[in-house]
Known about the structure:
The chain is mainly alpha-helical and 165 residues long. Helix content is 68%, strand content 0%. It has nine helices and no strands. Helix 1 runs parallel beside helix 3. The radius of gyration is 15 Å and the shape is globular. The relative contact order is 0.12.
Amino acid sequence: xxxxxxxxxxxxxxxxxxxxxxxxxxxxxxxxxxxxxxxxxxxxxxxxxxxxxxxxxxxxxxxxxxxxxxxxxxxxxxxxxxxxxxxxxxxxxxxxxxxxxxxxxxxxxxxxxxxxxxxxxxxxxxxxxxxxxxxxxxxxxxxxxxxxxxxxxxxxxxxxxxxxx
Length: 165
């Protein structure tokens, strides 16, 4: 594992599991400013190590922006990423200049990865997909998200619509 992967894993684990450990400002700025600071394999490992519950916790509780950013990056690699869509959609439709694009990109990645085969392998329930689809409606409500994020939300919405037919 390269040093950025190690940093991501440590940051995600420390920030999510222990609120008392704050990362240095330098690390926080780097993670938040470099949208692709961690490669996909390291993110997949971080998602598996943290687990879906911790990822969701970090997406919902944005008091640690670094943990939230890393959780958003790792979300497409979660065991049940469709369950993280409501939290990601809330971030994507929010006004945080660092977290909204991270969440939007994660939703776009989910749109690229969701397929009937993947859903059958994960035994995803239709109700989970419907709940995810409903959460994406924030992209159509005022205040509207940035244009690029609105497109990412729309892509996942279209993917879910096709899968729900």
